[in-house]
Write a structure and sequence with these properties.
EC 1.3.8.10, Cyclohex-1-ene-1-carbonyl-CoA dehydrogenase, alpha+beta, flavin adenine dinucleotide binding, binds coenzyme a persulfide, 11 helices, 379 residues, flavoprotein, Butyryl-Coa Dehydrogenase, subunit A, domain 1
Length: 379
Amino acid sequence: MNEFQRELTSSLEKFCQDNIEPHMEHDDHEGKFRMEIFRGLGEYGVTGVTLPEEFGGAGLSYQDYAYVLETIAKYSVPYAVTVSVSSMVQSILLNFGNAEQKKKYLPALTSGEEIGAFALSESHSGSDAANMKTTAKKVDGGYMLNGTKMWITSGGIAKTYIVMARTGGEGAKGVSAFIVRDGDKGFSFGKAEKKMGWKTSPTRELVFENCFVPQENLLLEEGKGFNVAMGGLDRGRVAIGAIGVGCAQRALDESIKYSLTRQQFKQAIFDFQGLQFMLSDMATETEASRLMVHSAALSLDSGTPNSKLCSMAKLKATDTAMKVTTDAVQVLGGVGYTSEYPVERFMRDAKVLQIVEGTNQIQRVVIARHLKKEYEQHA
Ligand code: COS
């Protein structure tokens, strides 16, 4: 971490301690999202970290961004996720949008005034994303969208949605990507999911019933939507990895703090070697995950994203988050299982990190495909 990153994260820690931490236990219980917290993060300058200043972003690197997400996630995984999905939408608009689309939609997203959401999954196409059924039929002046998207992070609180829909035949080549706005006629929100974790981040169904999307809201050209989605997900996966690191780090911090004060058998439980081995493994895995996330972030900063590394970072960091948070509950014992301490919340929030932006089984599929291709190239 360089001097700038140290200053950035230590002042952001303070912001999160003052503005996020006091609400989390209550809001997790109530399932309450606070727009003022997100706008506060925007005013603080972390809702468009990697976007160029020209579009209102902070113009920082993906490595800086990884530290930002890690820091927010130490206080709230759901708010870090809201920032990360909105940032993925920004990166899609930046990389695949035309000049007009960037000018129109980016400033409100980078400033944190609005939230962005990404709509790929459907009830029958999660991992097999190219098999989606939502259609976008060409009509005069644009497209008519029909279908339902499922499990959409920030559904209902976001204003700008990147929606993948079928304009052509079967498979990836028949998919196109569109910009759809909350309030567009024919676009409504379906059921809000009741979830194990991420309680402060709404997850909704998106329903399109003869929703007209003007031609100017098509991203790139017809048939390029799957590439748009996959390109966005490379970045999104590194971001989820960074959130996994923050989630694990908080669980580790809580475990060390507790085990140094909790006395059993006339000594701090930290002094038992069994616990020291556990804490050492938790710390080592967290640090290894951080290094992988930063290695993947470096590839994004270089301008040539390494998809294999992005998937590896997501896989490693989110499996680590699950393991470390589960162990943290074990270290705290009975109280770890209650909401008196935050570790049970972080354990619940860790679980879905292994599922979103491609399950960790899909990350292994992506990694294996790269391994095979690399082998064939060098054979
Ligand atoms: N960046 C840009 N383009 C990519 C890409 C990437 N990382 N990965 C694949 N593509 C392109 C391919 O190059 C191909 O395009 P061309 O035919 O023009 O070359 C196209 O996308 C289809 O790729 P592929 O044949 O590999 O598609 P598959 O149907 O086999 O699917 C997986 C590949 C399984 C990896 C993909 O469906 C996937 O990631 N699924 C998980 C979806 C997901 O993450 N959902 C979470 C939603 S957000 S909670």
